[in-house]
Amino acid sequence: MSRPGTALVTGASTGIGLELSRVFAARGHDLVLVARSKHKLDEVAAGLSAKHGVRVVVLPADLQDPESAERIARAVAREGVTVDYLVNNAGFGVAAPFVEVDVRRSLDMIALNITALTHLTHLFAKGMRERGRGGVLNIASTAGFQPGPGMAVYYATKAYVISFSEALAEELAHTGVHVTAFCPGPVHTEFARIAGNEDSVLFKLGAAKADTVARDAYDAFMKRRVVFVPGTSNWLGVQLLRVSPRALVRKVAAWVNSKTEPKTGSGGSSGPSAKPGTPSNGGRAPRANSAS
Ligand SMILES: NC(=O)c1ccc[n+]([C@@H]2O[C@H](COP(=O)([O-])OP(=O)(O)OC[C@H]3O[C@@H](n4cnc5c(N)ncnc54)[C@H](OP(=O)(O)O)[C@@H]3O)[C@@H](O)[C@H]2O)c1
Fold first, then answer.
1. For a tag site, which of 138, 207, 219, 276 has the least CB within 10 Å?
2. What is the pLDDT of residues 188-209, one digit of tens each?
3. Can you identify the CATH homologous superfamily of domain 6-256?
């Protein structure tokens, strides 16, 4: 029986990328796993190949480094692997007013969320088009449909991902190569802790489970959906954004990115502070993903 194609997944060490790797492996895909944490990738690889009998190649890389994409392409070629599916999942956000964020953090975010995604897509989509088969799954966000006061650069990076993916899907239509922008709302992962928005109204309103989100992403991708928003409330929210005045959209986005009041022991309010644009981490650099 023919194998279902090899998938390269970025940000595969934890969160949505880890769950996506599990879904691909469970469906019989060989894998190439990319992230910075080699030890975590090695653990994931050992577990997935033992459980599903798939081949898993680990390529540790910091995708903020502009040389990484080409290094990965060379390493993949050395391993004799053909990448049939590229999953651009690695990304991070920063929750604080733009002028208070160290500009290097914002530039690192653009390097990872936009530049690396674009570079890897160029390197691998060319081969897919030549072979007449394959696909690119880009993990965007509902953030990409609106401006995001309090997380301005992050929301803008995701708007790029949606626009780029849609355009590429059209360019590659009828070549056998499909492209999906998958746009989840809040998800329980390390993302909120790293961004510093665990206490935001957005995350307090509820977050999806990463394994559910990953299954939805795989299904939408294999069904060749171009833009997919999982979950009824997320989907309705995006439809509302399309018909609402932009000035209102900005205010609401500022509110959902604002910090909720901490609970007090004497029955104090746990509701949102409703102070537009209030940073949830005071503009401090997030921990784990700080520039290396
Ligand atoms: N969680 C949410 O609420 C949410 C909602 C919508 C969209 N998304 C998007 O979903 C994607 C995955 O996020 P997540 O929630 O799973 O976050 P996460 O739990 O923080 O995982 C991020 C992954 O990216 C990797 N990564 C981070 N910086 C990297 C770098 N410089 N080079 C290589 N790999 C790097 C991390 O591994 P290492 O630290 O080992 O490098 C990790 O595997 C992101 O694009 C995010 O924007 C998330």
1. 219
2. 999 999 999 998 999 988 899 9
3. NAD(P)-binding Rossmann-like Domain (3.40.50.720)
